[in-house]
DNA sequence: CGAAAAGACCAAAGCGCTTTGGAAGACTCT
DNA sequence: AGAGTCTTCCAAAGCGCTTTGGTCTTTTCG
């Protein structure tokens, strides 16, 4: 059932039927009802390929997926995706993932824009002065950054959490509890979120006349193993930290294992706070010692990004508004006063 | 730069240029070279929307993503996706995720087929007599099932691992080590993979005159917490198992925690084998006691599924061939002889 | 040598929608 | 009553590609 058949059946022109269906004003309300009715009854659905060719609109949002043998898409992505899907579903938006060589994403971005394959895209895990942001800005396709980039000569729309504030609060709490030697096990420090977390922590330390020495900071891919290694390195120093802030729950698993291997205890010998993106399959309250966290649902962020993309596509949102979500600090058993 | 311009520039018809570019035989080789050359020089790329409308081919593969507040997409998905992306990238295939209400995926499948939104789709986490398989079979779109379904009046193409064989081997090993009371912490037993694993284990037990009692089997969503709970339930019985087979590494984390909470040890009091899908961020060799596993890379499976989909799209693969990959049994420190 | 076959190319008709540029009739207003 | 204005609808021209159904020229072969 296509437009031609439908309009013939209604003894109307394709023009009128098309307009009736798409809510244009220049059509009699009575006629519109008739059309709507017939369309529903016959299950007419406009062919998206045809519509695409005519309008350029695709009803899809895009994401360039970095791939390659050495590239690991981490589990955060899937949780973000869930949120995105939650929103997208109710708006019949599809998501297209375009796999790209991790070292040359630009080609793919250019392709999907030139080909008009999607109406909007989002970017995740941005770095400071991220080339993708600059690129999309010049290409002129609607986009949202999940996270933040910095230091451009222009503004851009983003949705981010207050990583700096979160880790500032976490560090402040630890300091209040008497800790003097804090350490940070961070994610990849080429990414903005990691830089912000470090900055937040440093700010809290400085305010109390403390510092975050080179020896007390690690920056690694967020795997269990790297968490373990980092913790061992930190704790086997001559002056080990008495508290650690950790950028992910998965790494925190490794930290806990290291602590145990070294015959230490949490929170007796070490206080631990980790960032929790809220995975359904790994909860901080279920750690052997319930884990204190800075918490922010990455799933909700996904839904929000989808919502904003939809708004931008339909022209409801414009400009470069950035939003920063606060992060909860949730205190559980893994923090205590510094050992004497 | 579109076809019209290009052909005008070459003083050829659109027909000839199109055919030259698409490798049709009825064009002079000399002419073809000229065309190819000009196309490359001017960076001509056929507009996919137009091509789509004309041919119905999209260059995309589809996946219906179940969503909803209660639905958790698990981390296996992202790893599978990585593999899919690895292959898809080299073939300029994109992947479109269509979010659907988890309870009504059929509507979405019908939509993407009716609209010709993708050239092929894949299905994951199939159940026995999975309605999606039956549906896609009647809808007549190329598809591959990742996993297996059972009991149709027709065959279908799938790529699966030998779940039954894997858990059969695992159980056999445990029995050889003298264990008599085995337990299984399984995934959702409405899914085929879980049924196969149980079947494999049962087969091994039966062969030795043993059984898998109702009290020794759990079937839960694969989260850390559920692993913990299941293990507690099993181990606090009057006649607790001396060995557990577990369907995922994430649940195994919970098992290890439970064992520790109960003051038991691995492998002294309990032998543990888990299935490992090979996540880069959580490795069995890094468990406090290195974990024995049945291992099969889900990422490789993703690449294979993409490859087969591509083959089916281009007509290189036909029929209902199913393939079953063997699973490695990797023995590490978490298994030992049964306690006396 | 003449007929048939093969080779190389093209004009034009789709694919199914949106949108432009009217046109016809009804209504208002002076 | 005639000019102007709405309201409501339509024919046809795109969007940029593929493909059908030729035509014209050259080659092959009995």
From TrEMBL, chains A, B:
Pfam families: LacI, Peripla_BP_3. Residues 1-55 form the HTH lacI-type domain. InterPro entries: HTH_LacI, LacI/GalR-like_sensor, Lambda_DNA-bd_dom_sf, Peripla_BP_I. Gene3D superfamilies: 3.40.50.2300, lambda repressor-like DNA-binding domains. Keywords: DNA-binding, Transcription, Transcription regulation. GO terms for molecular function: DNA-binding transcription factor activity; transcription cis-regulatory region binding. It comes from the Bacteria. This is HTH-type transcriptional regulator AglR. It comes from Mesorhizobium amorphae CCNWGS0123.
């Amino acid at each position: 059932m296509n437009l031609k058949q439908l309009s013939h059946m209604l003894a109307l022109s394709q023009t009128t039927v098309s307009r009736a269906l798409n809510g244009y004003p220049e059509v009699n309300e009575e006629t519109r009802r008739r059309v709507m009715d017939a369309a529903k009854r016959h299950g007419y659905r406009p062919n998206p390929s045809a519509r695409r060719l005519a309008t350029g609109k695709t009803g899809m949002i895009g994401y360039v997926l970095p791939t390659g043998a050495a590239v690991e898409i981490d589990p955060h992505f899937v949780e973000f995706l869930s949120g995105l899907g939650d929103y997208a579903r109710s708006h019949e938006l599809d998501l297209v993932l375009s796999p790209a060589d991790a070292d040359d994403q630009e080609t793919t971005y250019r392709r999907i824009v030139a080909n008009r394959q999607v109406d909007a895209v989002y970017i995740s895990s941005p770095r400071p002065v991220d080339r993708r942001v600059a690129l999309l800005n010049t290409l002129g396709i609607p986009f949202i950054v999940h996270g933040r980039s910095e230091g451009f000569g222009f503004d851009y729309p983003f949705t981010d959490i207050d990583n700096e504030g979160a880790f500032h609060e976490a560090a402040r709490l630890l300091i209040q509890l008497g800790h003097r030697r804090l350490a940070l096990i961070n994610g990849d420090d080429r990414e903005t979120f990691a830089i912000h977390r470090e900055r937040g922590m440093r700010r809290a330390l400085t305010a109390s006349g403390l510092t975050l020495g080179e020896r007390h900071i690690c920056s690694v891919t967020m795997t269990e193993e790297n968490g373990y290694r980092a913790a061992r390195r930190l704790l086997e120093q001559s002056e080990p930290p008495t508290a650690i802030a950790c950028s992910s729950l998965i790494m925190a698993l490794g930290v806990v294992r290291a602590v145990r291997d070294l015959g230490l205890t949490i929170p007796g010998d070490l206080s631990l706070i980790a960032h929790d993106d809220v995975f359904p399959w790994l909860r901080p309250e279920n750690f052997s010692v319930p884990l204190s966290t800075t918490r922010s649902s990455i799933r909700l962020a996904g839904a929000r990004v989808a919502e904003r993309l939809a708004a931008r596509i339909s022209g409801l949102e414009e400009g470069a508004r950035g939003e920063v979500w606060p992060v909860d600090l949730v205190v559980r058993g893994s923090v205590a006063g510094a050992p004497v």
